[in-house]
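#struct-pred

JT: dropping the chains for the assembly here, can someone run the whole complex?
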Amino acid sequence: MTIALVGNPNCGKTTLFNSLTGADQHVGNWPGVTVEQKTGRLIGYPEVGVIDLPGLYSLKAYTPEEAVACEYLQREAPGAVINIVDATALERSLYLTMQLLERGLPVIVALNMMDEMQRRGDSIDIELLTQALGVPVVPICARKGEGLEQLIDVALGQALSHRETKFTKHLDDGPCERYRRIEDIVAQTVTKAKRRANVSERIDGVVLHSVLAYPVFALVMLLVFWLPFGVIGRFMQQLAASSMEGLQVWLSDLLAGLAVSPWLHGLVIDGVLAGVGSLMPFLPVILLLFICLSLLEDSGYMARCAWIMDRPLRGMGLAGQSFIPLLLGFGCTVPAVLATRSMKEEKHRRMTVMLAPLMSCGAKTPVYTLLASAFFSEKAFRVVVCMYAGGLMLAVVIGRFLRGTAASGGSSSFVMELPSYRLPTARNVLHSVMHRAGDFAKRAFSVILLASVMIWLLRSFTFSMEEAETLQSSMLARLAGWLVPVFSPLGFGSLAAVTALLCGVLAKENIVSTLVLMSGAAGLNTAFAGQAGAAAYLTFVLLYSPCVAALAAIRRELGGWRWAFWAAMWQTSFAWVCAWVVFRFMGG
Amino acid sequence: MRKALNRLRIGESAYVAQVKAEEPLCTRLLELGFTPGTKVTLRRMAPLGDPLEVSLRGYRLTLNRWDAAAIFVQKDKRL
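RK: done, full complex below.
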């Protein structure tokens, strides 16, 4: 037996889904968070499946994500359909309800955001609404978990009884007729208080003000990046680094005390700990960045950014909706690429997917921080800013260029809602940050651990499995050595730097762990030709091929390996050219 | 006197007379509630004049300028 959750975008479906199933799907305060259907099991009723569908305004699909939901409802026969209705936008929400009822689906209306509606001083007569619709109506507040028991009872009752809905079917109705019926229903059941400007509107008065909007936007963006990379982030990074060093000393002493063989000591200390451990100091920085991003998402400000950035983004062949995927790209390219699915216009969607990797993801952050502080000591912060800004600027240039070449014509529509501002709940922020930190930890102990051990092996031994006297006689030098000359003109033709780039294609976190592993006692200075070499390397890391996970996401969203391959190739060759320019410019 | 929705002044209200757009946009606009006779208010414009925010049927929606230009409004509720 299955219960499907259906409703308009940003009406709280995923919040309800998480409460019903105990899942921890990502929730955000902008339309289009869910782009794929998610399944789970109802808590307490393991035999009942719950399906969370992407938001839709109507059963006539308009965007790719809406099509997912429509197809599901046409193909499957769910035992009950919980139609989540935003009580603060009742008329518009009931439009979908009407269509669901016309199809004869076993609908239960969950009237969500009751708290927000009551704050506005409005009221809805639930009993009259139940009569008028002919299906059960249950008032809930998904964010606070209110009314859920009753909703579950009613939904299970519906699913078990297969009760016929009392609604008379008007199958050939159009939008005008449906809205006429909705107007009648609303007139009977809703009492509206006199409208005053609510908090959201007052905030928008400042945030979307014709003069203040962009300064406020710039300030918020500055804060989002200053927190992780400024004083606070650096302090936390040093704290984590010193505790990692402590751990290393302690473990090294412990192993020496146990008198283990030198190769095991080497594997644990120089392989695993130096590799995976080298990333740990950067974890606080990445977490801070994720906290900032999820605060933006949850509060509702991100949707405003899309609004004020629509016009500027059009100049580069994108649309306002591109803003959210691009900003998410600073966290990780994979969700960024996925988030493009709520975009209507295919050419904007494709462009957004292609430009998203230029937003430096969280995994590139450690590389910037490590090299910037090693080579540019006091100017480190400025160098990191340059990398982020450089990616953005290149995206603008490439966007403009591609827009000029691509066949223009056909305008895209920017039809979306500005959600009400909501105070981000600690639970939500914690949830999404832990989710992302979990991803990081999973990669650290799988791909990165494996890569660290592999590199340690290849570097420490020759092909005859004897301990390598020098790096040049190791297996690694034989395998990756031929690539070194390719990068010599860029100022980082060293085995360490090149191996790190190769491992970076698996996961960008590998770059730092490999660099630390390979340069070892000699230090980073030997791997790069001074500041110019380091700067060229950073440029190359910023621009070259996305990691395997991101390439897979690109393939899925654009339908074909051709696109993913093209993305990897153009980015890598472009990266080479840019790194060369930077190296020459810096006097290398 | 009919005029396009984007020609309203900020804060001004009018009633929808007709939606003149190609499919599928036309249906989508009707489904979002721009049916003839619906009261629409222009709330604000983005700092660069596009997109617009309007309110209708008790909720707020944002539209691009040229989408709004496809929605014709008039002072009178009745057609």
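JT: nice. The domain at 2-191 of chain A is CATH 3.40.50.300 (Rossmann fold). The interface with chain B takes residues 57-58, 60, 62, 88-92, 95, 174-176, 179-180, 192, 204, 208-211, 213-214, 307-308, 310-312, 320, 411-418 of chain A (CB under 8 Å).
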